[in-house]
C-alpha cells in the first residue's frame, strides 16, 4: 500500500467511525486517534526498530510499550472478532482493511491505547469505568438501539470486545486535547500538539515491534510491509 492509499484508507475509516460513534462523541477526536495510529505510533516504532530486530525474541509478544506488552493474543482476538462480526452485517460500500493491513491496524490500535493512557497519566488525567459506561450509552442512543451497534462497529473497524478500550482511548484523547487547548494552543493546532505529546511519551517509554509487521519508512511516514523476495 503506498502513502496515498494509506492516507485515503485512514481518512475513510475515520469517517466511518464518526458515523458509528455519534456527534456527541467528538468526531475530531476519533480522527486524531486515527491519525496517531497512522503516524505517531509508527514514528515511535522507529525509535526501537533497530533493537527490535536483534532482541525481540518472545513468540507471544507483538510489541512492547515501555513495560506494557501487546501480545499475539491481543491482536489475534481483535482480528478474529472483527472478521466474525463482519459476517453478520452488510459491508457493501465499507472501506475496511483485510489481511496484513487489518493485523497492523489492530496492533496499532492496542499500541495507541497504551500510549494515550500513559500520556494521560503523566498529565494526571483519569477516566473511570462510569465515564466509559456513560459514553457507551450515548453511542447506543445515537445509533438508535443496541441491535444497530454491530454494524456501526464493523464500519468503524472496532471489535465489540474492544469497544470499552476504544471509548477509554477516545476519552483520554478528548481530555488531553482540552488540556492542550486550555494552555493556549489554537484549536486548529491541538491535533498536532497532541500527536507530538504522544510521540514524546513513546520516545521516553521506548517501543519495540515484531519486525514481521515491516519497517519504518520515513519518506512515507508509514510502516511498510516486508518486501517479498524476487522470484528466481
Describe the structure.
Strands 2-1-3 form a three-stranded antiparallel beta sheet. The protein has eight helices and five strands; from the N terminus they run H-H-E-E-H-H-H-H-H-H-E-E-E. The protein is mostly helical. The protein has helices at residues 3-21, 27-55, 72-86, 99-122, 129-143, 149-156, 163-182, 190-205; strands spanning 61-65, 68-71, 207-209, 215-217, 222-224. A hairpin with a 4-residue loop joins strand 4 and strand 5 (222-224). The chain is 63% helix and 8% strand. The two termini are 24 Å apart. It has one domain (3-211).
Key phrases:
mainly alpha; 232 residues; 8% strand; two-stranded antiparallel ribbon
Annotate the secondary structure layout:
Blueprint: H1 3-21, H2 27-55, E1 61-65, E2 68-71, H3 72-86, H4 99-122, H5 129-143, H6 149-156, H7 163-182, H8 190-205, E3 207-209, E4 215-217, E5 222-224
Q: Uncertain segments of ≥5 residues (pLDDT<50)? A: 1-27, 33-56, 216-223
Structural class: mainly alpha
Percent range for β-strand residues: 5-15%
Tally of domains: 1
What value does the average pLDDT take?
73
Approximate helicity band: 55-70%
The largest β sheet comes out as: 3 strands, antiparallel
User: What's the number of extended β-strand segments?
Assistant: 5
Q: Total number of helical segments?
A: 8
Strand order of the largest sheet: 2-1-3
Shape: globular
